Amino acid sequence: TPEQAARMKKLQEQEKRQKVEFRKRMEQEVSQFIQATGEPRRRFQPMNKIERSILHDVAEVAGLTSFSFGDDEDSRYVMVFKKEFAPSDEELEAYRRGEEWDPARAEERRRLRELAAQQEEAELECGPAPPGPPNDYKDKYRHLIGSDAAKAAARTMEANKAYGCVPVANKRDTRSIEEAMNEIRAKKRLRQAEDE
Fold this sequence. Notes:
Blueprint: H1 2-35, E1 41-43, H2 49-61, E2 65-69, E3 77-81, H3 89-96, H4 103-125, H5 137-140, H6 142-145, H7 148-156, H8 168-171, H9 177-195
Antiparallel strand pairs: 1-3, 2-3
Helix pairs in contact: 1-2
């Protein structure tokens, strides 16, 4: 009906006006944020998907970095960062987990990781621990196999060095695949002719 259409049009115009007003408000907030010297990042209130997309767009136009955080749609919010204070991966991970970013704690974690890596390196330099069980299985079964049988068995287990290798004679074959296939077909025809 014409009344419904008019009502719909009025609603759409109202939504459009609200979006324009919201964008203006966000542009003002973002420009205030840019002028604020002691503020490297700003967290905005939770907002819906459309409002977040408008804010991301405003931030991008202003040359800022922006990210959305929060699990459910009602609590998702946008954080805007000045380019020179762009967040590290660790900082982003903290926000994704819903934690506050604490540079001092992150530095402490990084130091602990470095320390662990240095200890690991030191252990590697000392030489690896001997692999395998602490006792030798051959001792356990010596009464069955004797002391020489195991050594003899170990000697006979040598790798077949030719396994998977192409013989040198085959490597000298410089024919194309088509030439080789034609030769095979010719031999096959010859054999068939002899059989007949």
